[in-house]
User: What shape does this take?
Amino acid sequence: MKTHRGNAVIALALLLIPAVSAGASDFGLALTLVPKVSQEGFTLTVMANPWFSALLGENGELYLSGIVKLETTFQSATLLLDLGRSQVKLRPSPGTSWEFGRMPFADESGFVASGLMDGARWTGSPGPLGASAGLFYTGLLNKKSAEIVLTAADGADLLDADRFFAPPRLLAVLSGGLRNPPAFLSRLSAQAVGQFDLRGGSDTLHSQYLTLTAGIPAGAALAFELSAAAALAEPSGSDPAFHAAGALQVSWDLPTALKDQAYLGLRAATGADRGFPNITSLEQGRVFTPGPAGLATARLGYRVRPSAVLGAEAQAVGFLRFPDGGPADAELDPGSDSPWLGAELYTTVTWTPFSDLSVLWGAGVFLPASGGAFLPDTPARWLLSAAAVLSL
Amino acid sequence: MKNVILVLFFMASAAGIHAQPAKEVDLLLADPQVSYARAARYVLPAADILPVSTSEADAFKAALEKGWLPEGADPASPIRLDESAYLVMSAFSLRGGLLYRLFPGPRYAYRELVYKQYIQGRRDPAQPVPGERLVRILGRVLDAKGGGE
Assistant: This one.
């Protein structure tokens, strides 16, 4: 089965090569180095992303990229080889495009799925709408990159060292938004996502999602964005369960010369009945990284860009859990029903001395003892990291 | 829009000195594949390296001597997008990336102009350059220069 899938990818690539206009192509390599140290130890990640792009005919573009990732603790090492964003994009007319291959996808609410997906997507402008429709399959993705765990069977596959691919699921996505929303809105859009578990057997989960998003400007410097997501989960052998999630983001462009912005983000997703069924892993913190189900977060942040080459951001996040569901963690106190999980502080500095070289430093700490949900002697968790990216 | 107006203003000035009212500008805008000589004719005066009245032949010769165009280039042949990027980067003395500093040439000049969004839209380094695209690229460069770069 794995061989057949690999052959299909190679065959597709071979079919595309003759279509590439002679000479009309480009290639490159991005090198990334990420040392990271935390209370769990030191890791070094070295990543190479070769890429190739070419024009196809009068209206098409081809982009192929790969991922070679080595992660080492100096006691052990893992190597990941994968296909990165690799797609054909056709623009038959202005405002209309077709994409085929492996492409980035992120749902509008941030509660459903994010990452690279294999499939096809149409984008167009019917009438007053900006719209898109996509059909994606997850069974050709690397399981470690996709991080799809919706059922116990998915979890077992993730731990199975002999398994490379992510669980096979089909995602159907339909999105639409007003191209010219009413004056009091900057954005108004809706998105429907259907997720169909193709695994078969007795442990499956289908789920459907409906998301509404509205952007509300309040003057030149202040903006609000509201998202609400409803989900219907259909686990095999159980009754369907309804879930909800919502987010409010407020951003304020400060009236200074520093191009700085303050923001406040509130997010919450229900946790009962196995929790809001986010398809991919959507980490809600940087040091403490629970998924969104059964969790509420309040995030206060400030970002500044004092010069063209320097940027910085600091944020504080408070984590609360709902009585039902919520994150699993080995250091949670089983006898506590406190909703307050703790607070996280995280800062990043980005330095881009050249257009092809950028360096990012990050430092953060999670203080579980500030809440009552963790065992009393749980130590603080911390993370120091750096990342250097060079584009050749 | 501002940048395109800037360039058209510059070109109209050049055409005025030649006493060829707007005809030269029309020819450039209608040109589907700008030649090496024509590219040099517009880029070098825009960068104040040559007078606006310079001829295509003189501009081509100057650019070739400075090493900003490929050795042995035929002045009437179409210039590639990456080659025009190197011509622009060199003429305007634009600061490039680390790789451009180590290996100055069309490859990394093209990358730099894409990064700075001076080159926009469907693109490839080997593409010929229509006159309208050259006008837009020059306009964005002049706009950025005027903006204090």
Chain B touches chain A through 16 residues (CB under 8 Å). Residues 48 and 91 of chain B are 9 Å apart (CA to CA). Residues 2-17 of chain B form the longest helix (16 residues). Chain B is about 60% helix and 0% strand.
